[in-house]
Amino acid sequence: MKYYLIAGEASGDLHGANLLKALKKYDGAPQFKAWGGDLMAAQGASLVKHYRELAFMGFAEVLLNLRTILGNIKFCKQDIVAFQPDVLILIDYPGFNMRIAEFAKKQGIRVIYYISPQIWAWKKNRVFKLKRDVDRMLTILPFEKDFYKQYDMEVDFVGHPLLDAISERAAFNRNERLKEFSLAGDAQVLALLPGSRSQEIRKMLPLMVEAAEAEGLEWIIAGAPSQDLAFYQKIVPAKNLKLVFGRTYEILEIADFALVASGTATLETALIGTPEVVCYKGNWISYLIARVLVKIKYISLVNLIMDRELVTELIQENFTLGKLQAELRKLGDDLKRKQLLESYQQLREKLGGAGASEKAAQLIYEDISS
Questions:
Q1: Is the same domain home to 155 and 238?
Q2: Structural domain of residue 301, as residue ranges?
Q3: Which residues contact 30 (CB under 8 A, 6 or more apart)?
Q4: So what's the pLDDT on residue 61?
Q5: For 86-142, what is each residue's pLDDT tens digit?
Q6: How many domains are there within the chain?
Q7: The dihedral of CA 101, 102, 105, 109: what is its sign?
Q8: Taking burial as the number of CB atoms within 10 A of a residue's CB, which of 156, 160, 169, 354 is the most buried?
């Protein structure tokens, strides 16, 4: 079978790679072509474009890069027609993927959406386009099935693929890893995850480092795969820079707590079991537009899934040095930490257990084989 996949971010590359790995168990001779990243390529996908070329964050940034985005859409349509896949698998990334879904449907290509766009957050009317253009929707958040049911759209809840990725971690020796990362064994370690896009890293990382040093903490940055060393050196003086690429989970495992940019990483941090503060500071124009359009109580997946403020969110004007320091001190409290870790276990249970990638692959292969 011929599979064409589109993911526009690092998290989509991770989930797409796990899906490809599972699909190979069902399909003995698959052909994968993908918009994604290194992880999907490692699973045998022929990479069309890397997500580094596609990551435009916020309303203002999208407008500034509109010509590039429209050019990518045009090229993608041409490439799909040339490849003639048996199925088009879309992974989140709605601004781009929903346009491609409409096109593919008109071409008679089977369209499966794996990892629903977060239309429950804003522009809910997009659900009608999804009903029209998508043949099958696979969701990974427990409340999404009920959301779609309101619109008479049946979807398959497969569970969250992060549970699989995180459960496959190997045992480790904390002291040896601290030494490997050049971190002092007798100090508390703070993991810094300032996001993957250059705009958000520039806005948040300097203050994250300042808070860590003000509190006397050992800190280490989980480098984004979409950036390079030189980029971080411009933001944090090279002599102070503590940075590791490609080992985010290993950093979180040895961290006592973490400062995490809103996004998939907030959920990854919770599932690993690291107490965290969720942070966001972006372009003010984009933020003000989002406040008007986005109708959700929280920005972190952890709080959205639990439907309560399980982890603190410091957003825009609340993202200050003083508030970062105050929240880090709270996470150092033993009782607060114990309560948070107990709530993290409830979160895991709510996400439906392991096997999401396997379930999704089985549904997709059965769908296109029937």
A1: no
A2: 172-350
A3: 1, 2, 3, 20, 23, 24, 44
A4: 56
A5: 999 999 999 899 999 999 999 999 999 999 998 887 778 899 999 999 999 999 998
A6: 2
A7: negative
A8: 160
